[in-house]
């Protein structure tokens, strides 16, 4: 089969189109013919940082975590899938799990679900990592109907899904963005846009909550921005973040009695820990999508498998809007 191999890590490393053996299906897994995969920030981090990240696979490596495709073979003990089923998931591209930048991949049946019927392969491939992250964060933060929810980074991969899911769960959603294009997308998705470059946290908290603060803050920017989340949160509020690789003064969180939830959705893949929960989330996401409440935004640039390097560069450029997807 064709595969885009990376033989060395580093910012100047290149993907090489190679001919490799098609993997054999194994118990508890399915062999998938990959139709499309999407690029996430963690994929670019692996390519650039290599073994400085403990989750990077040994080289030569096939990267790519997210995929959508068709089941070609079913391993022993798998009853939920049959040959010909269209599936999607986040199931490889790190540690000892070969990824999706190839014609075929072997995926743990506990890390996939049937593809949403209303989405194309490209659209379905854009969802798994970001949508599982958004879903898990909102659930752990206890989202309920009628809450005022603030999403930081609402035009990004995780953020644009978090907006849609929060709306689906009945919240009154607000979201920050850094320019007219970002705000336009945020408002198209049904949230009230906040330009963080022209409005202070104090200003928009007063404007939208009467000074009380937001009941739930989903921070997909994280890092130093967590201090803005603390400031924007109501007393005893919940904050979910996807980026907490930082040192931070938690004093403001203490005096507000805030609960902080750190979401690292790769844990089931890395540690084989409760992988079936990812399958269940993907099934829930498929139902939400089929109900018309979740549609991924795709970047306008088109990429084929042999363009993997260009697709990674597109995401890293910061010029894209929506998920960067690679078609096989």
TrEMBL record:
Coiled coil: none annotated. GO terms for cellular component: cytoplasm. Residues 10-326 form the Enoyl reductase (ER) domain. PROSITE patterns: QOR_ZETA_CRYSTAL (PS01162). InterPro entries: ADH-like_N (IPR013154), ER (IPR020843), GroES-like_sf (IPR011032), NAD(P)-bd_dom_sf (IPR036291), Quin_OxRdtase/zeta-crystal_CS (IPR002364), Zinc-ADH_QOR/CCCR (IPR051603). Keywords: Cytoplasm, NADP, RNA-binding. The keyword Transferase does not apply. SMART domains: PKS_ER. The keyword Thylakoid does not apply. GO terms for molecular function: oxidoreductase activity; RNA binding; zinc ion binding. It is found in: Cytoplasm. Homotetramer. This is Zinc-containing alcohol dehydrogenase superfamily protein. It comes from Rhodopirellula sallentina SM41.
